[in-house]
Task: inverse folding
């Protein structure tokens, strides 16, 4: 049987660890087993148990304190991830060989890992060799996305991860619960955006004709091919969390091996009808 994985990505501060924690709690309520693997060597705290922690293999602080390397925070993190890529056997041993696993990989926030460095692509290929079905989950802070050009920047970051990793990807706007009612209403247009209308609404803010053409070309790329859409994520909304989880499960075909019985169609609804009996096939026609 296949195993399943979410690669939880996004800029620093976008809510990746909170997303993992929320999904673990939500899955427990559904009696689903979901495990988390921490792949951020600079992580300091998370409030959920992990089945594997990259800090047991290497830590950013140790790399930065090494006088022979002399790396700063970003260089140290890249070094840690490249070291991790050369030691995938550690991850294989930590994951074990349990069938039907569902694992969240809490990844670092440095964008270069998803644009021009091969580390995350190598991780995806390795997981696929281990019979994982992998879905990328790219998070962006909704508080950052309330302005059109910041939104375009977030879309391009999500798009770069999609192109680099070449796996199914679900894009999510996090921290919806922190928005004011006015901001929530305003941000709805960004969930399924009309990029050309957005350009017209903000045409007065574009001073340079050269950059206006570039922005229009980027908007055309996004709009014409419908390549990036976002789902809202409010950690206090159980129904919204379930919708996000359903989208991800569908993309990796989670549960396709489970036996499914389609309920019988009922043309008219008789009074006092017991629906439990319908689904069990016990109601006489």
Result:
């Amino acid at each position: 049987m296949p195993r399943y994985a979410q690669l939880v990505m996004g800029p620093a501060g976008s809510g990746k660890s909170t997303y993992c924690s929320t999904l673990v709690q939500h899955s427990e309520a559904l009696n689903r087993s979901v495990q988390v693997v921490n792949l951020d060597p600079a992580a300091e705290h998370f409030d959920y148990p992990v089945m594997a922690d990259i800090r047991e293999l290497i830590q950013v602080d140790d790399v930065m304190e090494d006088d022979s390397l002399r790396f700063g925070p970003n260089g140290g993190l890249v070094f840690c991830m490249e070291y991790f890529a050369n030691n995938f056997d550690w991850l294989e041993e930590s994951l074990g060989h349990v069938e039907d696993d569902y694992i969240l990989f809490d990844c670092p926030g440095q964008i270069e890992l998803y644009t021009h460095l091969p580390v995350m692509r190598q991780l995806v290929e390795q997981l696929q060799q281990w019979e994982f079905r992998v879905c990328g989950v790219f998070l962006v802070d909704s508080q950052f996305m309330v302005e059109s050009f910041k939104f375009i920047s977030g879309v391009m970051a999500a798009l770069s991860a999609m192109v680099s990793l070449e796996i199914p990807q679900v894009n999510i706007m996090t921290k919806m619960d922190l928005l004011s009612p006015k901001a929530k209403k305003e941000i709805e247009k960004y969930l399924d955006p009309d990029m050309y209308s957005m350009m017209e609404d903000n045409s007065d803010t574009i001073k340079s004709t050269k950059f206006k053409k570039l922005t229009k070309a980027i908007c055309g790329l996004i709009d014409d091919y419908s390549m990036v859409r976002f789902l809202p994520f409010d950690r206090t909304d159980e129904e919204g969390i379930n919708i996000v989880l359903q989208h991800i499960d569908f993309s990796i075909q989670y549960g396709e091996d489970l036996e499914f019985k389609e309920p019988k169609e009922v043309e008219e609804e008789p009074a006092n009808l017991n629906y439990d009996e319908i689904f069990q096939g016990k109601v006489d026609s």
